[in-house]
Amino acid sequence: MSLIAGSTKRKLGFKATKVAVTHPRLLVTGTKVAWPVGKVAFRVSKPLLKRRMRRVAPPVAAVVVIGAGAVYFLNPAHGEEHRQQVAQLVS
Question: Structure pTM?
Answer without folding.
Answer: 0.38
